[in-house]
């Protein structure tokens, strides 16, 4: 009973949810649209610094694409085997039980989703400000203020209406593809003119250490993050056992190809040193190649990043909503606005954490922190797949990957998490681990033993009145 009422509660999406409307084309679009965001416009310089040569960084770009593809194929098995929403949350629940599943929802609502939002909004701000400040590096405080402004605007859009959020998403996805095409065509034109000098001698430079390679992967993998996004909407996919793996097999190689071509384009227009020095590579690229139309570049990148941030908050709102409905977060976070039907408390909560991250973090540090934490859970999902092959051998598996794939991805994720700790121990990694395990302090009393402190009822009531939100079920009783 409760479930069906809740479906009505988030009407516009969940009505769609039941109709299986995502075919092959939309599946590919969902993957490509989420993956291409800020990374390809900010990460190339960072990757070059960490690897020390054009050749190694190019190989890492391709390797990140391959790793994302293998990870996503393993997720296709998980997603067609357990079709309920919540992706990792549902798989951990099946394979390891409620405590690890809780830790996942704890970390993703408090850290992973807000840090995605913070990184993308900071990249948005960097490009928006760079368009106006050409003489010197843009002041950090201005960049941060613009990033905060972006968070507020996206929060407003998503609290205002679900349809407005979706419309922003579609328009901005189209703009992102235009940005990608401009860079690729501009680069091709430069290459035809014979500007190939930065692509020769690609491997001259120092050999990077294993830890540096792992952190270079973090930078690259950020640009590919979102490869598991279709798993969050498995229930909406038509014929998922065919279309989920197919969308993955088309979408991820397509993004890899775009990223490879964009990297070549950047190098056709500037030297590796210029690329490293540039705060916003795509702007430098536009200034070199587009002449009077150079303004097109920062404009399309800001539009692309704004769209990604919007999609990320949209998804984050749903995650918060689902996790608190299962009793894994405060009740108030699952409430919806009484007239607008948007999960406003969850969205505001995420935006506040993202805003704090914008104030105290930098793009580079947030990306490292994000990738380190995210790959612990991606590795966990691989382990869940392997464990379930033994513990649930008879579960129907409409799509089955060769077991070597999750094993390889698991080994690589262990390397990605452990290598930077050993190579350059940083206190942030320890904080991240303590934070993940710290979730257990809340899990035992509040989830396992179901205790609710008395004052929580008052807090819930206060926010209900302030935000005009109600539990979804009460609206339809
Ligand atoms: N790959 C995207 C970028 O380069 C970030 C995607 C964030 N992840 C997500 N699931 N929304 O900006």
From TrEMBL:
Membrane topology designation: Multi-pass membrane protein
Transmembrane spans: 21-42, 54-76, 88-108, 145-165, 171-192, 248-269, 289-321, 341-363, 369-391, 403-422, 428-447
Reaction equations catalysed: L-lysine(out) + L-arginine(in) = L-lysine(in) + L-arginine(out); L-cysteine(out) + L-arginine(in) = L-cysteine(in) + L-arginine(out); L-histidine(out) + L-arginine(in) = L-histidine(in) + L-arginine(out); L-cystine(out) + L-arginine(in) = L-cystine(in) + L-arginine(out)
Keywords: Cell membrane, Disulfide bond, Membrane, Phosphoprotein, Transmembrane, Transmembrane helix, Transport
InterPro entries with a match to the protein in the record: AA/rel_permease1, AminoAcid_Transporter
Pfam families the UniProt entry points to: AA_permease_2
GO MF annotation list: L-amino acid transmembrane transporter activity
A Gene Ontology term for the protein's cellular component: apical plasma membrane
Similarity annotation: Belongs to the amino acid-polyamine-organocation (APC) superfamily.
Name the record gives this protein: b(0,+)-type amino acid transporter 1
Organism, scientific name: Ceratitis capitata (Mediterranean fruit fly)
